[in-house]
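Quick one before lunch.
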Amino acid sequence: MQPDFLARAAALRREIERHNHAYYVLDQPTIPDAEYDRLFRELQTLEAEHPELDTLDSPTRRVGGTPLDGFAQVRHAVPMLSIRTETDTEASGAQSFDARVRKELGRDESDPPVEYAAELKFDGLAINLRYERGLLVQASTRGDGETGEDVTQNIRTLHTIPLRLKTGSPPAVLEVRGEAYMRRDDFERYNAKQREAGQPTLVNPRNGAAGSIRQLDPRLAAQRPLSFFAYGLGEVQGWPLPPTHSATLDALLTLGVPVCAERITGLGAAALVAFHADIAARRDQLPFDIDGVVYKVNRLDLQHELGFVTREPRWAVAHKYPAQEQLTTVLGIDVQVGRTGALTPVARLTPVFVGGVTVTNATLHNQDEIDRKDVRVGDTVIVRRAGDVIPEVVATVIERRPQPEPPRFNILQSHPVCPVCGSHVVRLEGEAAVRCTGGLYCPAQRKQALLHFAGRRAMDIDGLGDKLVDQLVERGLVRTPADVYDLSLDTLAGLERMAAKSAANLLAAIEASKAATLARFIFALGIRHVGEATAKDLARHFGTLDALIAATDVDLLQVRDVGPIVAQSIVQFFAEPHNIEVVGRLRDAGIRWTETSGAQRSAGSLAGKTLVLTGTLPTLTRDAAKVKIEAAGGKVTGSVSKKTDYVVAGEEAGSKLAKARELGVAILDEAGLLSLLVSNTNNG
Ligand code: IVH
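Model of the 2-(butylsulfanyl)adenosine complex:
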């Protein structure tokens, strides 16, 4: 009988691979990450305790082992060839290929057309996967075609590559050839993360794939997500070859090897021309970069008959599309202000045709990216435009820099104030972006600021949503949140899709929003890094808006959860006169809240508490009790509600006492109140 741990390990592997497949291939995660991690750790522990369990196809092998000193050389059993490339943009590429094939095969006009397989030319790195008895034993790069490098450890980190082929009767040897590539979304996500962390970004997905696979530390390789598509075979032993190329790819798919679905078979040049045109039209929408399409004679016996010229097969050709990267020169660097106030540097370029369109502007992302790429006005740069992603400058050609050297570009120096609104700009610690501080005032940030201001957790103006904000801003009716309070029924009724009833409702909501709390108001200002919880802490700590406005960095750091970055952001917000102006207008509009003075709040035992006095107390007059309560930071109100913390009841207390009992509010007598006040004195 097999030991329990063997059965458990096998079950864990099956389950983990099933989740891997759901997550990486189907994109439909089946269990929460934490649960997956638990299974994974259990398997790792089992394998550590029982080294005999540690097989090559265990999913634990996918996380990457120890760093290598270098890659071992691998001599390919069957050379890895390249294909002839046509760059014609029209149909002639397919037609001349078909003409050559027919001539070589001795077919003339009266013979039937040749059947072709057409597929994508993936833009990554060619890889040979060697399976022996169904198990992935080695992965290698193409190298010079004869000898490549052993990149097995890194290739194992690609979750879509099976570590074991899905078959009960595995071939003795099956070499699968294909391309390791990086999807565009994975590329963008990786770069965004790097940019955010101030780390180097990848130039393009192809470099990302190549760099990742040739990375000596497999754990680093594992952090750069790659994918794989098979497009052919190398050495094969003990596996009956299908009759055609397309059937071969179908067979690989059933073995669990990823094959791209964007492929066709068809007769003659016409089918190839149609495929070329179809893919050209959809190239931008593909989830990965391609640099062209590949045409192959479908029947393997005909491929054999056609053979090779030098190092290229006569039975295949690549037909390229226009490049997605081009050289051009930087005419100037402009700065654009985004919805959140971030200043984005944009290179103005000598117009260049790239990725199928003429590009005149390309993003430089932020100051760190400009510094890292060292882009200067006058430089020759590589511009990339792929998919629907906005064009970007990916590198500078330093050798072509004009002499004498142009100066480095610095956003803060060239734009000390916002190019849109003139407010001062800052770069907050730990942030890549330079930002305009005129959040309440800047036209570029208007819509964002208004939507935030009106939000449910902010001023809660029901009805002031996306569409309406668009209209109000675009018609110049509202420039800052303060203008909202000047809106009239007439103005609103003149807007699209605004019935009299909804206009009246909106006005009522605007009016109702004036009864605010200080915390809500602070949150509504949209100060960067000041969320709802921080706004509450600030309101509680400072008690009044003026105290907050006057607060220095040092004062702010006294507040719970406020660190240097938040403190800096608040100081900068109130240092901008435009913001103070808008805040003043909001107060003039009648927004109000209850403020508490400094003395009242000073760490009293009743700080933040609301009390109601009722009946006659034995020694204290009502006024005396009130003074004492307020001195301890508490508040005295006239009626009992759920928000009441204590009801202090004396002789002849009536309905308020009854109400307190009904709501379950704590009830004190004079002695109880005095003991609370004493504990206040003791606490200092
Ligand atoms: S077939 C003998 N098919 O293009 C033919 N290659 O020069 C072997 N490539 O670096 C290649 N997509 O990695 C073939 N669908 C595809 C391809 C493809 C990309 C790459 C391949 C190699 C180059 C061929």
